[in-house]
Amino acid sequence: MARLKFPSSDAPYDRFTLRLNGIEAPPVSNLSEVEVHALVAAGAEAPLEVRYSSRGLDEWFYAFAESGVTQVHDLALTMTTDFADVDFPPGTMSPTTARTTTGRKLDGKFESLVTGQAIGLDLPDKTNPGPLAARITFFAPVSLLFFTTVLVILGILNDENLYPMNYAFLSAAFFAFHLLLGYLVDHLNIHRSFVLASATSSFLVVTYLRIVAGSRFAIRRAGLAQLVFLVLFSDAFFFKGYTGLTVTVGAIVTLFVLMQATGRVDWSRVFERPARA
């Protein structure tokens, strides 16, 4: 007798086959388990065939036992994927060999294995545009702080200071990216939405500063600062697990550049109050 416990009673199992020594299992009436009976001579070997196609998300596991440590002999397991971004859940064994095709082909071969672990595979997640846009928008004040700080210091170094009203318009143009991105992701691909929102915000900032402070300040200074602190910082959210590191490295590099550029500035003269008449 062979008994198969289905991984989940909520999943579909297409082209299902359970066959023991050429005997097929009866029609399934219970999605928790199914049995097949066949006569096998003492000491003889009987082939067992289990096959089905299903759909799932997140993770796939092949467990040797429900719990505890177990031993298996002459195990040969091959996982073939149509994606190359392969990862393994915590607490599972990685394959012994890996080959690259259109996806990945992962082989696990063990002669006499004793383990309490399962074999598993993490499926790549598709980017969910809603939460991603929300995270980028939540980070907007930090990006704006870096952007305005750089513009203020560049203005001091080049004697091209802007007025508070100028910064108010620049902040509104900066946040136009986040506002437009939040609504575009409901209608367009996340990457197209990102490019369109970035281009719109950059156009607003550069064309405005070209009138206020000239093309040199608008393109070479403000445009470059917006590329770094708006576009590149926001683009870091597409790289799962590296967002914090990317932003931190960018902040440290920015701090170094500003400290080197302003090391000889006489701040007492910069912040000196004009004498009263």
Question: Can you give a write-up of this model?
Answer:
A 3-stranded antiparallel beta sheet has the order 3-2-5, with no helix packed on it. Strands 6-11-8 form a 3-stranded mixed beta sheet, with no helix packed on it. The chain has helices at 129-138, 140-157, 164-184, 190-212, 215-235, 243-261, 267-270; strands at 2-5, 14-20, 23-24, 33-36, 48-53, 59-62, 70-81, 92-93, 97-100, 104-115, 118-122. The chain folds into 3 domains: 1-56, no CATH class; 57-125, no CATH class; 129-265, no CATH class. The protein has 277 residues and is of the alpha+beta class. The N and C termini lie far apart (104 Å). Helix 3 runs antiparallel to helix 4 (190-212). A hairpin with a 2-residue loop joins strand 2 and strand 3 (23-24). It is 42% helix and 22% strand.
